[in-house]
């Protein structure tokens, strides 16, 4: 039995085991997670990320632009967004800024500007990031605090849709992938946080933080973003 790293419930049970690692499933939030003893050392993990830095840049650009267009439908004000956990190419940032918006980028290995984690944003993009979270409760809480009231959090991660097929699921074979989410996991998270789960299918999860009656859309609770 292991404590769930997402909801901290103690009732997790053995789910799958192979030559590389053991995974557990939480009875409460339905997260499937790997045993911490199988996590790669940070230096090894960083090297793997460096080798894959240019991978999926086209898809990340499309994901970001689609998110910006979605947010533009809600307000005529300039938006400030955060690309969290992965660094997009400079051209992608320029494309967004050409629409009079601002995009900041935070990555714990390659763009670790912690001042960006003291601000709030109209939207946050997490493209192929959630599966890497070793302490997903900590990251989920941080992201919730970084969102302005009314803000959007867009997540791209492969949902675990068939528990019986986990053994053949190629997504689990990447040892930097340590957390695997079901739709019900995000339903649980949204309910616990009081967020609105707008969409959760395929690889896309979209949630919105409730608007506060005393906070105007487009303004930060901090001096500048």
Describe the secondary-structure layout.
Elements: E1 12-17, E2 22-26, E3 32-34, H1 42-51, H2 57-72, E4 80-84, H3 90-97, E5 102-106, E6 121-127, H4 136-146, E7 147-156, E8 179-180, H5 183-193, E9 196-201, E10 204-208
Parallel strand pairs: 4-5, 4-6, 6-7
Antiparallel strand pairs: 1-2, 2-3, 3-8, 7-10, 9-10
Strand content: 15-25%
Report the helical percentage: 10-25%
The CATH superfamily of the domain at 42-159 and 172-208 bears the name: Vaccinia Virus protein VP39
* CATH structural architecture of the domain at 42-159 and 172-208: 3-Layer(aba) Sandwich
**Main sheet makeup:** 6 strands, mixed
By DSSP, the count of extended strands is 10
Strand order of the largest sheet: 5-4-6-7-10-9
Could you state the oligomeric state of the chains shown? single chain
**Number of DSSP helices?**
5
Structural class per helix/strand content? alpha/beta
Overall 3D shape: globular
What is the CA-atom radius of gyration, in angstroms? 18 Å
What does this entry look like structurally?
This protein is α/β, with parallel strands linked by helices. The protein has a domain of 155 residues: Rossmann fold, CATH 3.40.50.150. It is 25% helix and 24% strand. It has a 6-stranded mixed sheet with strand order 5-4-6-7-10-9, sandwiched between helices.
